[in-house]
Amino acid sequence: MSSLAETSDASLIEFAGVSKWFGPVIAVNHVTFQLTRGITGLVGPNGAGKSTLIRLLTGQVRPSIGRVGIGGRSAWSAAAKSRLGYCPDVDAFYEEMSGRAFVRILARLHGLARRSAFQRTEEVLEEVGMADRADRPLSSYSKGMRQRIKLAQALIHDPELIVLDEPLNGVDPVGRMELAALFHRLVARDKAILISSHVLEEMDDLADRILFLCQGRLLASGSPAEVREMLDDHPLKIRVWSPRPRLLAARLLATDSVRGAEIEPGGGLLLNVEHPHNFFRLLEGIVVDEGFEVEAFQVIDASTQAVFNYLMKRGRIV
Amino acid sequence: MFRDLSHFRITERVRGCLLLAAVSLRRTLASRQTLVCGLLLAFTTLAVVAWSLRHDRDSQEFADDIVFPLYASFLLPMFSLCYAAPSVAGEHEEQTLVYLLATPLPRWMVFAAKYGAALIAAMLWTFGAWAVSSWLAGPAGRNVLVAFLPVVFWSTLVYVGLFCWFSAALPRATIVGLVYVFFVEAFLGNVPGIAKRAAVSFYTQSLMLDAGAELGVRPTGVRDPVLFLPLAGNTAQTIVCTLAVTTFLLGVWWFSRREYV
User: Fold this and answer.
1) pLDDT tens profile B7-55
2) Given A90, A94, A109, which is nearest B16 (Cβ)?
3) ipTM value of the model?
């Protein structure tokens, strides 16, 4: 927690004693933190309150108690949104439009003049790797392409703060590496990025800081190394989709990181992973160096929840 | 530490608002609501053609048989409902509202843009349907075509404001709107007694009776003055103007405050 606390005049986001109820359900429970430049990972299992926290931050909802500020202004205000780029987790667009037209319209809605909007659209499409594929209707895009268009619209007005809700969902491993490189380039341009994920391992090489949210509470925070220390020996179940699941299973079982593998009827490969951190490095190497094709992977949610339970049991609650 | 972002001036906001209205209009006209409106117009056209097969019809009969029960009580609210109810609710249900709420456009401007798009689309259909049906009705219809145009305008304004407010405030705004049209406008607005004053169609009919008085349209039959109790033109006009402004402001207020989760 202390690593996140900065002087308030340098902070972009300020959550001060924020709680949010929906009827009798408390979604965010007395959360206080400040964020500055760099990449911050917001991690927690499904239902932890990540989406509510992001909605509070992006001015979609107002806090029941406390204050959410962006650059000193209430996050609910229109003025605060000039500083904010938001990539939502929902997979929704104006489907009949092309990706280029969609991004261009959002550029105009962010106040860019027509010529600037055209120019900036091309820049961000180039940046997210969609410049040559953005003229097809959005309805024909793959999940990964849709994620890139969502990212492009979030960057269109060159905001200081970029909030990305599960931006790596559905993106293949090569795409993940490209997007991670993009995030680092943005940080080099003095941006603050908040990335939410329910996969802890996604944040290892990405985030400078991590916020753990569980049951609406800020459970822990710190650098990935500090967090790794807490979690390294906790096993995970991971499902991998590959056109050659048997070969991949054989290759992975030959390593120390994978304790067991099961090929599922739907074609998925369910892995019992002993050292998740090592496993993700290994998988990356197998895909890039050995040419194994991995279409997607998913950390089974129950296991992620178990990680948080494990963390709670270890008493690292802040 | 921060860039000065006061560059998002009022002119840029207005430009953004107009662009959003134009995009919304284009999308709404290309939606299935247009198909529904087309079917309604086709049905009306058939009804008017069948009605006009007898040659000795006058404007009074046209008003009693077509204008009051079909056009004022059903078509006007339905055309408005088709475009106004999905204005905000459609974006919310399709989960695209989040993009609009993340822009620096003030919420009231987002609502105004959606309202503007729905109003233009609804006006195209209400005026179009009125022109087509009164033209097809022959001399009986053409006699009142121009006289009733202001009534069509004001009534559409009220209905669009009302259904845009529903859209901003209620879940399943289209279904609620449909129930409202059939129960309040089509049924309650035509029954004897004071209860019909809850229906906009009552004020529409009062305005039409006032505008058509010199053209031979009088409150007769079920619209007998004793039973129907139509309002004077000025009174009805004042109420309709007030409703148009009030429903729009209610929509703005609701949309500016509601959390869309």
Assistant:
1) 567 888 889 999 999 999 999 999 999 999 999 999 999 999 999 887 7
2) A109
3) 0.85
Give the helix, strand, coil percentages of chain A, each rounded to 5.
Answer: 40, 25, 35
In the block, residue with structure tokens 């003030």: B106
Retrieve residue B8's tokens: 């998002």
Top-tier CATH class for A232-313: alpha beta
Which residue type is seen at A16? A
A22 close contact with B: CB closer than 8 A: yes
Nearest alpha carbon to residue B162 among B106, B196, B129, B201: B201
**pLDDT, tens only, B192-229:** 778 889 999 999 999 999 998 888 777 776 667 767 77
Provide the residue ranges of all domains of chain B, joining segments of one domain with +.
10-257
A111 touches chain B (CB under 8 A): yes
CA distances from A280 to A166, A297, A305, B114, B164 (A): 18, 10, 19, 47, 50
Name the helix (H) or strand (E) containing B155.
helix B149-169
Nearest to B102 by CA among A165, A276, A293: A165
Taking the CA of residue B244 and the nearest CA in chain A, the distance in Å comes to 27
Q: CA separation (Å) from A103 to A155, A191, B92, B223?
A: 10, 20, 19, 55
Instruction: Please tell us whether the domain made up of A1-83+159-224 is placed in CATH 3.40.50.300.
Output: yes
Nearest CB neighbour to A90, from listed B98, B103, B104: B98
Q: Is A243 on the interface with B (CB under 8 A)?
A: no
The residue assigned the tokens 């007395």 is A30
